[in-house]
User: What shape does this take?
Amino acid sequence: MRDRYRVVVIGGGIVGCAVAYHLARRGLTDVVLIERRELTAGSTWHAAGGFHAINADTRIAALQKYTIEMYPRIEAESGRSVGLHRSGGIELASSPERWRWLRAQLAWHRAQGTEASLVTPEEAAEMVPILDPAGVLGGLFDPEEGNVDPSGATHAYADAARRLGVEIVLRNRVLALEPTAEGWLVRTERGDVACEHVVNAAGLWARRVGRMAGVDHPLVPMLHHYLVTEPIPEIAAIPGDMPAVTDLEGFTYLQREGDGVLLGVYETRPRHWAVEGPDWDFGMELFPEDLDRILPELSMGFERFPVLKEVGIKRWVHGAFTFTPDGNPLVGPVPGLRNYWAACGVMAGFSQGAGIGLALANWIVDGDPGYDVFGMDVARFGGYAANDRYLRETTAQFYARRFVMAYPNEELPAGRPLMTTPCYDALLAEGARFTVNRGLEVAAYFAPPGFEEEPTLGRSNADRFVAEEVEAVRTAAGAYEIAQYARYEVTGPGAEGWLDRLLAGRLPGLGRIRLAPMLSERGRLMGDLTAARLGEDRFWLTGSYHLQDWHLRWFLAHLPGRGVEIRNVTDAWMGFSISGPASRRILAALTSEDVSAEAFPFLHVRRMDVGSSRAVVGRISFTGELGYEIVVPALHHRTLWFELREAGAGHGLRPIGDRALDSLRLEKGYGIWSREYRQDVTPGMAGLDRYVAFDKGPFIGREAALRERETGTDARLVLLEVDAADADASPDDGVWLGERLVGSVTSGGFGHHVGKSLALAYLETGLARPEQELTVAILGEERRARVLPEPPYDPSGSRLREPDP
Assistant: This one.
């Protein structure tokens, strides 16, 4: 081991070895991987090794598909068998609702390019002869599932990395991490190593390694059981691979293991272990089986596969894996730490390891992962997520619900309520039913006492209340809490110049607001911000609440050494958006300022007294109606609400929630971040190119944006009207022209005012024309759709810009 490398990778599991390999494959070979014991020691060695390509997040699914495709390649490059079995897998349904969900999953698999198929109970039993089909309604067969040998796959990546020039040092514990001017000093048992970049792929020990760098990663080890049987004659008689089986309502999974089987259990009473991280001398140990904890689920497995009651058990595996609050990995540069990278919290390493390695290597080499990886980005969480109680509650909830069907309108209780605004109790008294955004409680809709929403795959029994909120905005006024908008204050003599380079659009003049897309060097979206100029050298940027750490990481990475200061003022300023034809009259009742259309035009901003508070008020609205965003110091937030409520009492003002806003914005065809606007799309694709100032001076992403303007785009964002029944389109539903996949839904819902089922979708450019007829797969059923030539509500935008009707 030398005393200097460009990159130090800490951890020799499947993820660490895949990261080292991909760095070398990208040409960065000055890499050392340091492992405290042996390769695979930790979670990797005792993993079941199963893999699947499908994920609820299609961007993560793309990386999982890449991971699977890499197994034959890494086997060939390394000359070492990975024990690859592409056996396929069957998910079973034993209830009508789960069977409906599986039929929807079939369409979703097709939209992701997987040739899945539905199977009858009898067909499932024929493919897996030890399966008792009693009570099974059907199954979904996915040909891309399978398993590998965990040790073989890990060593194959390690061997291939060595061949490319990576050094691997075993039995050498990292003792400390110290930041330096050049990067990091890694202190180890065998001496100090200087490097530019550190990658934390330490698995079970990732939290302890993170704390060496001053960061507390939100991950925790949890215990998991599986058993391996003695040979079973029915299995031994199968000449080739046998499909794996996931019994969703039985909380068990099964795969072939030699002439026997492996049966794993996701129990509903999970157990944490070594929350702060294991002792350093913990290595390849297992725990005694805890049958009392898993007996209910294990019994269901024995009923589904009755032969297990008779066959001997060769061994129990009861080991630890790491889990995060949402079950996804922690990947990428950690905000606030230069050149410290996370590649940890990976629960499904053999489905995701190579994809994580590829994205992280791209990120280190190019400054861009090359994919939309926000679903696994370490910056998706704030510091709140590392709290011990929050971690325990959310990870236990995720584990216990691993095979439980999730409903799109379902709100889960773990870790809630965590963060609330000063108006939380007041909105609760109004009937607010809450959802959560990055730990903050946000009103979803308002309902009377005693109402219980039913979880459903289709439209909700709460929709009638949402419809009332929508109608209030269209005919009178609605008040929407905007505490969950992130705000950043940019000041200093260099603020204007810096923002002009950071943002792709023109900056607003004094007292004005502009929509401001922000691009990466590749010309992909990094934000759909709103920029307001409050002074010559003072700007506010407003963006998505859940992107705070993600955006701050980007801002700080591009901040000049002096002349510009940026502060996150999200929690210091809160407020309400009031919109609807009566909103001007409500505002006028609370201020002595002239807020007429002539004195306070659209996209203007000013400081003024509103009620008892000194406020920043912008004339802007996301509903398509006349509206204002009123922001006050957080300590005034509650007072503002009661004053708005009083002033609006005679004008039909009522509180509205997220679901109403979603319906309102779909009626106008407005996109939002994480749905329409993502880091894998361009402004041309998203229809935001009209806000890009191609002719201004240099800005980040300008060259790529100019190239796109010349060459065009492969896909465009369109608004669809869908002939839906009792369910609307959902994100990632496929859009089809006959048997050809031509697009993908980004948002869907019901426009309660216009009475139409609507969907925003990315569609092949050649088909993105008015009245183009298509189909959308909703819960597995093909529904007719057409491209709308314009939004169904106020296409001219006159209600947003003009004086009150």
Observations:
- The first strand starts at residue 4 and ends at 10.
- The mean pLDDT is 97.
- The two ends are 76 Å apart (CA to CA).
